[in-house]
TrEMBL record:
<feature type="transmembrane region" description="Helical">
    <location>
        <begin position="161"/>
        <end position="180"/>
    </location>
</feature>
<feature type="transmembrane region" description="Helical">
    <location>
        <begin position="224"/>
        <end position="241"/>
    </location>
</feature>
<feature type="transmembrane region" description="Helical">
    <location>
        <begin position="17"/>
        <end position="39"/>
    </location>
</feature>
<dbReference type="Pfam" id="PF13386">
    <property type="entry name" value="DsbD_2"/>
</dbReference>
<feature type="transmembrane region" description="Helical">
    <location>
        <begin position="192"/>
        <end position="212"/>
    </location>
</feature>
<feature type="domain" description="Urease accessory protein UreH-like transmembrane">
    <location>
        <begin position="20"/>
        <end position="238"/>
    </location>
</feature>
<keyword id="KW-1133">Transmembrane helix</keyword>
<dbReference type="InterPro" id="IPR039447">
    <property type="entry name" value="UreH-like_TM_dom"/>
</dbReference>
<feature type="transmembrane region" description="Helical">
    <location>
        <begin position="104"/>
        <end position="123"/>
    </location>
</feature>
<keyword id="KW-0812">Transmembrane</keyword>
<keyword id="KW-0472">Membrane</keyword>
<feature type="transmembrane region" description="Helical">
    <location>
        <begin position="71"/>
        <end position="92"/>
    </location>
</feature>
<protein>
    <recommendedName>
        <fullName>Urease accessory protein UreH-like transmembrane domain-containing protein</fullName>
    </recommendedName>
</protein>
Length: 264
């Protein structure tokens, strides 16, 4: 075995996978606020090209490609965050005490951030979470969104609509960013890609139905889904938080979900 500390490859556990999929399923209602306008634009373009507003196989294919592009971008960016996390933790693993402390602190910070996000949704303050996005990020979102909207006609009719969906992985989102933090805490790119991919797949039903059939989701129903989303974030945030506490010697009930650990 070489002297460099590397994290063992750990597949996503059932509690993790269930939590990420649930966040995606419930978070689809929030995604309508960000992705909905762009979905409406390209859905209208598809209808114009097809010469009908009725659902056709072309509509289904293009909406599916758009959403697959989103899921792939989430998975790719999640893997990159995990790769950076693995390098970050590995830099401290030559000193066991410091390495353990860094991982504990990361678990506490990441878990707390995710839980606070969950509380924001749970108490109906999700709009306040959007306002926490730094102004430069908001401006960048405006530019990216404007660029995508201006090029919808070029992208909507063929496989390049995958790229239109992939752009969403870069947009500010209080659902995706906590998930990226979680990916960073795992330090395992493959595992993070699987988890973020699941989250992306979970959002597909709502956005797909919105783009093809529904057109809108009532504010009351969206509020109910937001509260349920908040509860699922509490569960997700507790996983790294409890891991951090355990590393500090604080015994708490916890799910058996491994986080970054060097090979001995």
């Amino acid at each position: 075995m070489d002297g460099g500390a590397t994290p063992p490859v750990v597949s996503a556990t059932p509690p993790e996978a269930a939590a990420f999929l649930l966040v995606g399923l419930l978070g689809g209602a929030h995604c309508l606020g960000m992705c909905g306008p762009l979905v409406s634009v390209y859905a209208d373009r598809l209808s114009d090209r097809a010469g009908t507003e009725s659902l056709t196989l072309v509509h289904v294919r293009q909406h599916a490609l758009f959403n697959v592009g989103r899921a792939l971008s989430y998975a790719t960016i999640g893997a990159l965050f995990a790769l950076v996390g693995g390098l970050f933790f590995g830099a401290f693993d030559s000193l066991a005490t410091i390495g353990s402390g860094v991982r504990a602190t990361t678990g506490l910070l990441v878990g707390t951030a995710i839980i606070l996000t969950g509380l924001g949704y749970l108490v109906g303050r999700s709009a306040a979470l959007d306002r926490l996005t730094p102004a430069p990020v908001t401006r960048l979102f405006g530019r990216v969104s404007g660029w995508a909207t201006a090029r919808v006609d070029r992208l909507v009719g063929g496989p390049r609509i995958l790229g239109l969906g992939a752009i969403h992985g870069l947009l500010p989102c209080p659902i995706i960013y906590p998930a990226y933090l979680y990916a960073f805490a795992t330090g395992d790119p493959l595992r993070a890609a699987a988890l973020l991919g699941l989250l992306g797949l979970g959002t597909i039903p709502t956005l797909f139905l919105y783009g093809t059939l529904l057109g809108q989701v009532s504010a009351r129903r969206r509020a109910v889904l937001h509260r349920a989303l908040g509860a699922s974030f509490l569960v997700l945030g507790y996983i790294p938080l409890s891991h951090g506490l355990m590393l500090l010697g604080v015994s708490v009930p916890h799910l058996h979900v491994p986080f970054y650990q060097p090979l001995g």
